[in-house]
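FAQ
Q: What does a multi-component entry look like?
A: The components come first, one per line:
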Amino acid sequence: MTAALLWVATIAAAYQALRNFETTPGRAAAAPKSWPQASRISRASDWTLVMLVHPHCSCSRASVRELQAVIESAPSIRPTVLVYRPTGFARGWERTDVYEAATRLRRTRVVIDDDGREAGLFGGFTSGQTFLYDRNGRLRFSGGITSLRGHAGINSGRTGVIDIVSSRGAPATHPVFGCAIATGNAKEQR
Amino acid sequence: MSTMTNGDPRVEARAAELRDTQVRERRAKVDRMFAILIAIQYLAGIIGALVVSPYAWAGKERVLHMHVWVAILGGAGIAILPILLAIFRPGTVLTRHVIAASQMLSSALLIHLTGGRIETHFHVFGSLAFLAFYLDWKVILTATTVIAADHFLRGVFWPESVYGIANPEWWRFLEHAGWVVFEDIFVVWACFLSLREIDASARRQAEVEYLSEQEQLKTAALEMALAEMKATA
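Then the predicted structure of the entire assembly, as tokens:
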């Protein structure tokens, strides 16, 4: 009986640890309300979506998959994926399956973001962070588009972006789940 | 043949003995097979976690991903008791019920580690088919209860991890459990059919043994009578 109770307790502890990990969002962005003028990304004449991605973040596979769903549902969006690359790593460090998946997205520009400089301009800290700006350069959405860490599927982040573009939704936000883009805040990001 | 044995209680007792031995040996063998399978699943879970999500990153820094820890420690938590029971107490009721629960928990863990992928749910159905080798419908009931409870509780507290959406209908776990019950109907039926076949086979063997014994007794009696006749002649 003791062994059985110990067994159940161990399993419950593992579940709880996993739940805590996967439901705890990353640091939310402090996004500027208007398009950052210093950005070297060209803003589209219609909707512009910017997603920050850490190429080694396994959770970001789900973010890229959700971005694909957004692109298919909202043809007027012009997405840019900013792939984080810190200095000190060999060229090609960023060429992971997450990067490759981003390059296969339709109508999407993939830009290497050295040391997260562009991410900083957008006020983002977490891989998967998504910004949506309208044709006037006003921020309409800031947040993640997955429901949990590494979990693809319908969620209010993804539907929020689609609803805004189809003029059905008000400006929105959603928790972002992913690895940290910038160093110096490692504890809160993990 | 049964008319020849005419419901002899010795035949009935021998048939029950043969059937029980065969079923017990079979269940002990299935326990050992599950011990191997659970160990393989444990290693596969770790390898899968190391391949799919080895590290969590914070900028330049990396640490071992939580999934790897859960695969190692949580997976060990799921696997250790059924493996020990299969080794040290094979063939017992407790062992096969713990194995059934553990197998379903392994399914739940694998479903989670793969981000709730619908394809991983097939592990549940494969496991139920394998659990049917025990020829014990109560084991299927235990497995079904565990996976339904897992889906219900996660549906309440953590729905995204099992359904991929944040606000599933409250009855969504019943839909998943319904498909499990659909399979259960057939595997439980198969259990009863197999038990019936084992029972018939044991009965036939008991009757053959009984008839053979009767023949030997008759032969011995005849030989004795012949010997007595020769002695008196």
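Q: Is there any commentary attached?
A: Sometimes. For this entry: The mean pLDDT of chain B is 90.
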